[in-house]
Amino acid sequence: MALKTEELVLNMGPQHPSTHGVLRLLVELDGELVVNVKPIIGYLHRCFEKHCEALSYNQIVPYTDRLDYLASMSNNLSYVMGVEKLMGIQVPERVEYIRVIMAELQRIASHTVALGTYGLDIGAFTPFLFLFRDREKILDIFEATCGARLLYNYIWVGGLSHDIPDEFVPMVKKFIKEFRPTIEEVNELLSFNKIFIERTANIGVLPPDTAINYGITGPSLRGSGIKWDLRKNDPYSIYDRFEFDIPVGEGKVGTVGDSWDRYWVRMLEMEQSLRIIEQAIDNIPDGDVHEMVPKRIKAPKGNVYVRAENPKGELGFFILSDGKNNPFRVKVRPPSFVNLSVLGELSKGYLVADLIAILGSLDIVLGEIDR
Question: Are 203 and 258 in contact (CB under 8 A)?
Fold first, then answer.
């Protein structure tokens, strides 16, 4: 029987800056080696699903903003697609194009936070400044469109809260032109930095079969080499009209599915989002974004499940209607909650310092974990 020495149970969080929110990790250590990690959640609980039972379908939209509050536009989109499917609403072409552009801008904005704070976790400060500088430009576009910079209530059932302003298209094109050099700068400063690679390559390797068994989605799944993206594999909105690639982990500097691969997939995805926006921005048709917005929503009896490819993975809404003004039940399938479940499996046998790199590579937000 091996003699275990220096066993220690360590609380990391819920106020620790590297837990990316109010997350408590109960870490079992043997010296500096991680034996087990148990995520303890519930510090940010807001009873979203129960609130939905007392709110009309329209009133729920602002609450979806507060799930993954770094991807509010994407949350709006997934939810309203569910209600529209339940009611049989076909939104105008103009609305579809604007929704796609907003969703891809939101994907870039979410990834800039994920990548910038990941650099901070490892000890790199300058890439964080570059990425947040350009994220502000996206927030400027959102603010010019709907007046908000974080929680938007922009994508409504049947349409949008506001049409895009005259300066929208020039602002988006200017952002695209300025953001591509930033991607190159971050790659030079961080992606291929020797220290960063040593801290992330071959760390927290997630094999494809383990990722599938845990239900992992989004960049964390694609980092393991699995080419699965709902925009391609189960297209929604008008994504089937655009040409873009699905980046996957290839073990470029280490093992396929390691922390660096999960980071790298997000870097590549930002470029693909720019490609989608470029294809959509010059082809926005004319139309009225309020044409199909119902004055009062009373969904027929039935149920529906709709999912979308959010920045962190598959966000799904199951909506059950009993024919009244409020949904009878709303259930959320949040990607951060599911992706966090694999943390213990990924961390065993690594150093406690590696635990920070592994957690950061999953890109979680506690707003949708403690929904």
Answer: yes
Average pLDDT (337-346) is: 96
Q: Spelled out in words, what is the top-level CATH class assigned to the domain 7-369?
A: mainly alpha
What is the radius of gyration, based on Cα positions, of the chain?
Answer: 21
Taking the C-alpha atoms of residue 104 and residue 101, their distance in angstroms, rounded to an integer, is: 5
Q: Quick check: 60 pLDDT over 60?
A: yes
CA 117 to each of CA 50, 121, 170, 274: distance values in angstroms, whole numbers, following the listed order = 32, 6, 29, 21
Cα–Cα distance list, 144 to 121, 176, 285 (Å):
32, 17, 20
Q: Is the peptide bond before 14 cis (omega within 30 degrees of 0)?
A: yes
Q: CA angle 145-149-151, nearest 5°?
A: 100
Helix, strand, coil percentages, rounded to 5, for the chain = 50, 15, 40
pLDDT digit string, tens, across residues 252-302: 999 999 999 999 999 999 999 999 999 999 999 999 999 999 999 999 999
Cα(205)–Cα(239) distance, integer angstroms:
31
Strand 329-333 relative to strand 7-12, pairing? unpaired
Q: With 70 as the cut, is the pLDDT of residue 106 above it?
A: yes
Asked if residue 4 has pLDDT above 70, the reply is: no
CB atoms inside a 10 Å sphere around CB 371: 21
Phi–psi pair at 47, nearest 5 degrees: 60, 40
* C-alpha pair distances (Å), 244 with each of 6, 35, 175, 276, 335: 51, 41, 19, 7, 22
Q: Which residue is listed with tokens 């939905």? A: 52
Whether 1 shows a pLDDT value over 60: the answer reads no
Name, in order, each residue with C-beta under 8 angstroms of 273's C-beta and a sequence gap of 6 or more. 104, 105, 107, 108, 244
Cα–Cα nearest to 120, from 285, 112, 249: 112
Tokens 């390559």 belong to which residue?
Answer: 201
